[in-house]
Design a protein that fits this description.
- The structure holds 2 protein chains of 2 kinds.
- Chain A is built from 20 helices and 22 strands.
- By secondary structure, chain A is an alpha/beta fold.
- Chain A folds into 2 domains: about 190 residues, P-loop containing nucleotide triphosphate hydrolases (Rossmann fold, 3-Layer(aba) Sandwich); about 240 residues, P-loop containing nucleotide triphosphate hydrolases (Rossmann fold, 3-Layer(aba) Sandwich), CATH 3.40.50.300.
- In chain A, strand 4 and strand 5 form a beta hairpin.
- The longest helix of chain A has 18 residues.
- Chain A is globular, with a radius of gyration of 26 Å.
- The relative contact order of chain A is 0.11.
- By secondary structure, chain B is mainly α.
- Chain B has 2 domains: about 60 residues, no CATH class; about 220 residues, MetI-like fold (Orthogonal Bundle), CATH 1.10.3720.
- Chain B is about 80% helix and about 0% strand.
- In chain B, helix 6 packs across helix 8 and helix 11 runs antiparallel to helix 12.
- The longest helix of chain B has about 40 residues.
- The N and C termini of chain B lie close together (about 10 Å).
- Classes of the chains: A alpha/beta, B mainly alpha.
- Chain A: It comes from Pseudochelatococcus contaminans.
- Chain A: One of its GO terms (molecular function) is ATP hydrolysis activity.
- Chain A: It is a peripheral membrane protein.
- Chain A: It is found in: Cell inner membrane.
C-alpha cells in the first residue's frame, strides 16, 4: 500500500464509521409476530481504531445487540424489528444469509465470553483456526498453515507448532482465548465484537488479553465493540461508552464524560456501585476467636496407600495454611484460579477431608472428626455459594429450603418456620417469599435467600465462596452491605473467598493472599492493599483493571 | 493407544475365565447326575457309564475343571451329543448366515439412522422431525416376529420379490446371497434404526446448544458445515455407545429373526441345542457370545478415544 492510498484510507475512515447502528430494535418472537422488545431504538457508531464499550447489567440487551450485528440471533426466539445496522455502508439487516456468512470473520468477527466452551473440544485448535481460511480464502494447505502459525505467533502463544496440534482441553483459559482471538482476527476484519472476553479469566490473564486486543487493534486499525459489565475494564480501554439499561441507551459519551460526569441517575448509580480498591479503615475486631486453622494441607489425587497412610503423590492444592477468624470479623481469602482458596473453604466446611493440619472450631478440632461426631459441629459453620441460580432446589418452596437444615437438627417445624421468617426479614425480604419458588426471584434476591438459609442455623462461622461474583454491580453492592450488616448484628465470623480485590477491599478486615496452594501474604485489608509486601500481591493489585479510577467519587485517582 | 488396547484385552481375560467357570458349573451343579441329564430319559445304564467316563465325571471336580479349561484352550469344545460332530465344526458351518445378517443389519442401521437423526435434529420441531420420530416409535414398538411375517406376506407372497424363507451362501453367487438377506435385514434393522436415530437426534440437538457451535457460525460456516463438521463429531460418543449396545442386543434379535426366516444360522443352532439339551453345544455358544460381547465393548472403548481426545489420557 503506498502513501496516497493509505492517507485516502485514513480520510475515508474519518468520514465514515465502520459500524453504524441506527434505531435498531429487536424483539422476542411471539406466537403471532414480534413480542416483547429487548432492544429499543438503539443507535451508536464505531469508527476505525476506536473502542466503544457497551456497559449494562444483565438483561440490558448488550449481548443481543452484538448477536444482531453478527446476524447470529437465534431465529426462533429473537428477531430484529426495525432500524439499520450498517457495516461500512452495507445494511446487514437486509443482507442475505450467504452474504452474512461471507462477511463473518472477513468484515466483522466476534470473541466470546467463555474460552472454555467456545472451542470445539474434539478438534485440534490449529485446524479450528485453519477452518476460517478454508471457508473464506482459496489458499493452499501449506500457505494456510503458514498463515495460521504466523497468527498464533502474533497472539503471543508459545511453542506454536505444538499448540497448533493441541486440543482445547490441553490449553489454559488464557491460551484458549488467544486462539479465539486468532480465529477472529486472522482475516483482519474491520470490526471486532468482544463480548465479555475476559470475564471468565483471572486478573493477570485479563490484563494480558486486554493488551493483546489493543495491540492487534492498533496494528490492523480495527473498530472494536467491547461488551462488559466491568467498569474497571471500561476505565482501562474505552474511547467511548454506551450505557444500556433494559434494551435502551441510557447515555453515551467519551470515557471521561461517563465516568466523571454522568448525566443520568442510572449511570451515576451504576458507576458509583463499582467497589473501590481503596479499603475502608475499620477498627480491627477484637471478639473471641471462633475458628483457627493450623498447617492445613490438602493433596488432590493422592490415593491412600495400601497400609492406610496417604502417599506423597498428588497435587498439593493447599499447603500449610494458617488462619484465625474472630467473631464479627470478615477474613478475605483472595487469589487466582488454582490458588487453593476454594480448597481451604471446603476443608474448613469439611466438605472434603484435609490430609493434615488442624481446624479448630470453638475449641474443638474438626479436621479428623468422623461423620457422627461431626454432625453437631456442622450447624456451627454454614456456607453461601457462588451461583444463586444453581444453589437452591428449583422444585422446593423457598421456606422448605430454609428450614431443611433446622429440621435435620430436630427443631420442631413450627419453631423452624418462625426462625425462617425471621431470617428472611434479616436479609431484607418480605415474608411472603417463604411460600414461593426460587425461579420467581432475581439473582440478588436468591443470594439473599441463600444467606437467610445459612443464617437460620445461627452459625458461628459463615463461609462465603465467591458469594457476590455472579451478581451485577448494583446488586453486588447491596449484598455486600447486607453481609456487612449481618456480621455486625449477628456477630458471625465470615470467611470470604473471592478473586475480586475490589470486593475484598469493601468488606474484609483481614486479607489472606494465596498463590499455588500457599499463603503468600496476610495482614489487615489496609496493609495488604495499600502497602503490599510481596511482589505477587503487588502484581495482583496492578492487574486489577481501572485501579486509577475512584468510581464512587467519579474521579481519577492521582 | 496400543498400550490402552493391551490393557483392556488383559482385563478381558478374567471376565472370560469367570464366564468359563460359570458355564462349567452350570452343568455340574444342576441337581442330579449330569450324565443322566445328558443321556436323556431313555438311556441304558451302560450308556450312562460311557458318558460319565467320556466327560471325566468320575474325577474330582477341580480336576474336571482343569481338564475342561485345558481342552478349551486347545480349541476343543467337545462333540455334539446329538450328532457326534465336533462343536467347533458345527459352529463353523452355522456362523455364516448369522455373521452375514449381523453385518448387513448393522451397516444398514447405521447408514440409515445417523442421517435420519441428524436431519430430525436439524429440523427440530418441524414436520420432518415429527415424521421421523413417529416412524421410529413404530420401529421399535413392532417386534421382529410381527414385522417379519408382514414383510414375508407382502414382499414374498404378494409381490414375489424375495424368497419366502431360507438362505443362499455367498458361494451361490452375490445376488442370490443378498436377495435372501433383504427381508431379514429389513425386519431386524427397523428396531436399531429407530433406536440409533433417536439417540443421534437427541445428542446432536444437545450439542447444537453448545457455545462452540455459535463460534462455528461466527466463522461464517453454513448450517451443513456446522452440523457435519462440529455437531456430529461431538455427538459421536453417545451414538457409538448405543450402536455398541445395539450390536450386543443383535444376538438375541438374530435368534428370533433366523427362526422367522428359517435361516440356518447360530440363532437357530441355539434353539435346536436348547430343545435337544445338547449341552456341549450350548456351552460353546454361551462362551462364543460372551466373547463377542467383550470384543464389542473393547471396540467401543477404543472408538471413544478415537472420537474424543479428552478420553485419551
Amino acid at each position: 500500500m503506498n502513501q496516497t492510498e493509505s492517507s485516502a484510507d485514513a480520510a475515508r475512515s474519518a468520514q465514515q464509521p465502520v459500524l453504524t447502528i441506527d434505531k435498531l430494535s429487536v424483539a422476542l418472537v411471539g406466537e403471532h409476530g414480534p413480542g416483547r422488545p429487548v432492544v429499543k431504538s438503539l443507535s451508536f457508531d464505531v469508527k476505525a481504531g476506536e473502542t466503544v464499550c457497551i456497559v449494562g447489567e444483565s438483561g440490558s440487551g448488550k449481548s443481543v445487540t452484538s448477536l444482531a450485528v453478527m446476524g447470529l440471533l437465534p431465529k426462533d426466539s429473537l428477531t430484529p424489528t426495525g432500524g439499520r445496522i450498517l457495516l461500512e455502508g452495507e445494511n446487514l439487516l437486509e443482507a442475505s444469509q450467504r452474504r452474512l456468512r461471507d462477511l463473518r470473520t472477513t468484515g466483522m468477527a466476534m470473541v466470546f465470553q467463555e474460552p472454555m466452551t467456545a472451542l470445539n473440544p474434539v478438534q485440534r485448535v490449529g485446524e479450528q483456526v485453519d477452518e476460517v481460511l478454508r471457508l473464506h480464502t482459496k489458499l493452499g494447505r501449506e500457505e494456510r498453515r503458514k498463515r495460521v502459525i504466523a497468527m498464533l505467533e502474533s497472539v503471543h502463544l508459545p511453542d506454536v507448532e505444538r499448540i497448533y496440534r493441541s486440543y482445547p482441553h490441553e490449553l489454559s483459559g488464557g491460551q484458549r482465548q488467544r486462539i479465539v482471538i486468532a480465529m477472529a482476527l486472522i482475516l483482519k476484519p474491520r470490526l471486532l465484537i468482544a463480548d465479555e472476553p475476559t470475564t471468565a479469566l483471572d486478573v493477570t490473564t485479563q490484563k494480558q488479553i486486554l493488551a493483546l486486543i489493543k495491540e492487534l487493534q492498533t496494528e490492523q486499525g480495527t473498530a472494536v465493540i467491547f461488551i462488559t459489565h466491568d467498569f474497571g475494564v471500561v476505565a482501562e480501554i474505552a474511547d467511548r461508552i454506551v450505557v444500556m439499561n433494559q434494551g435502551s441507551v441510557v447515555e453515551t459519551g467519551t470515557r471521561d464524560e461517563i465516568l466523571a460526569h454522568p448525566k443520568q441517575d442510572y449511570t451515576r448509580m451504576l458507576v458509583s456501585s463499582v467497589p473501590s480498591l481503596i479499603p475502608h479503615h475499620r477498627t480491627q475486631p477484637t471478639g473471641e476467636t471462633v475458628l483457627t486453622v493450623k498447617a492445613l494441607t490438602k493433596y488432590y489425587g493422592s490415593s491412600k496407600s495400601w497400609f492406610g497412610g496417604a502417599t506423597a503423590s498428588g497435587t498439593p492444592a493447599a499447603q500449610d495454611v494458617d488462619l484465625i477468624l474472630r467473631r464479627g470479623e470478615v477474613v478475605g481469602v483472595v487469589g487466582e484460579s488454582g490458588s487453593g482458596k476454594s480448597t481451604v473453604a471446603r476443608c474448613v466446611m469439611r466438605l472434603i477431608d484435609p490430609n493434615s493440619g488442624e481446624i479448630n472450631l470453638n475449641g474443638t478440632d474438626i479436621a479428623t472428626m468422623g461423620r457422627g461426631a461431626l454432625m453437631p459441629m456442622r450447624k456451627r459453620i454454614q456456607i453461601v455459594f457462588q451461583d444463586p441460580y444453581r444453589s437452591l432446589n428449583p422444585r422446593r418452596r423457598v421456606g422448605e429450603s430454609i428450614i431443611e437444615g433446622l429440621l435435620n437438627y430436630n427443631v420442631s417445624r413450627a419453631e423452624a418456620e418462625s426462625k425462617a421468617r425471621h431470617a428472611l426479614k434479616t436479609v431484607g425480604l418480605p415474608e411472603d417469599v417463604y411460600d414461593r419458588y426460587p425461579h420467581q426471584f432475581s439473582g440478588g434476591q436468591r443470594q439473599r435467600i441463600c444467606i437467610a438459609r445459612a443464617l437460620v442455623m445461627e452459625p458461628d462461622v459463615l463461609v462465603a465462596d465467591e458469594a457476590v461474583s455472579a451478581l451485577d454491580v448494583s446488586v453486588q453492592a447491596q449484598v455486600l452491605a447486607l453481609l456487612d450488616e449481618v456480621r455486625e448484628r449477628v456477630g458471625v465470623g465470615v470467611l470470604f473467598i473471592t478473586h475480586d480485590l475490589r470486593v475484598a477491599a469493601q468488606i474484609c478486615d483481614t486479607i489472606i493472599v494465596m498463590q499455588r496452594g500457599r499463603i503468600v501474604e496476610q495482614g489487615t485489608a489496609v496493609e495488604v492493599l495499600t502497602k503490599p509486601r510481596e511482589s505477587y500481591t503487588r502484581a495482583l493489585i496492578e492487574a486489577a483493571p481501572g485501579r486509577h479510577w475512584d468510581f464512587q467519587h467519579f474521579r481519577a485517582v492521582a | 493407544m496400543f498400550s490402552f488396547v493391551l490393557k483392556r484385552t488383559a482385563a478381558a481375560v478374567p471376565v472370560m475365565a469367570m464366564v468359563a467357570i460359570i458355564v462349567f458349573a452350570l452343568l455340574r451343579l444342576t441337581p442330579g447326575d449330569p450324565a443322566a441329564i445328558i443321556a436323556g430319559d431313555s438311556a441304558t445304564p451302560e450308556r450312562l457309564e460311557e458318558i460319565r467316563a467320556l466327560m471325566g465325571l468320575d474325577q474330582p471336580i477341580l480336576v474336571q475343571l482343569y481338564v475342561w479349561i485345558s481342552q478349551l484352550l486347545q480349541g476343543d469344545f467337545g462333540t455334539s451329543l446329538l450328532s457326534g460332530v465336533p462343536v467347533t465344526q458345527m459352529i463353523g458351518q452355522r456362523i455364516g448366515p448369522s455373521l452375514a445378517l449381523c453385518l448387513t443389519t448393522i451397516t444398514v442401521s447405521v447408514l440409515v439412522a445417523i442421517p435420519l437423526g441428524v436431519l430430525a435434529a436439524w429440523r427440530q420441531g418441524k414436520l420432518l422431525d415429527r415424521f421421523v420420530m413417529s416412524i421410529s416409535v413404530l420401529g421399535f414398538s413392532v417386534p421382529v416376529f410381527v414385522s417379519g411375517y408382514l414383510l414375508i406376506l407382502f414382499f414374498s407372497l404378494q409381490l414375489r420379490w424375495f424368497p419366502v424363507q431360507g438362505y443362499q451362501p455367498l458361494s451361490a453367487g452375490l445376488w442370490p446371497f443378498l436377495n435372501s438377506l433383504v427381508l431379514p435385514t429389513v425386519a431386524l434393522s427397523s428396531v436399531y434404526i429407530a433406536l440409533i436415530a433417536r439417540i443421534t437426534r437427541t445428542s446432536v440437538i444437545e450439542v447444537m446448544n453448545e457455545d462452540f457451535i455459535r463460534t462455528a457460525r461466527a466463522k461464517g460456516l453454513g448450517e451443513r458445515g456446522v452440523l457435519m463438521g462440529h455437531a456430529l463429531g461431538n455427538a459421536a460418543v453417545p451414538i457409538i455407545t448405543i450402536i455398541g449396545v445395539g450390536i450386543a442386543l443383535l444376538i438375541s434379535g438374530v435368534v428370533v429373526t433366523e427362526s422367522v426366516f428359517n435361516l440356518p444360522g447360530l440363532g437357530r443352532l441355539v434353539v435346536e441345542a436348547v430343545l435337544a439339551r445338547d449341552y456341549p453345544v450350548i456351552q460353546a455358544l454361551i462362551l462364543l457370545f460372551a466373547f463377542i460381547y467383550i470384543l464389542i465393548n473393547l471396540v467401543v472403548d477404543v472408538l471413544y478415544t478415537v472420537f474424543d481426545p479428552r478420553i485419551r489420557q
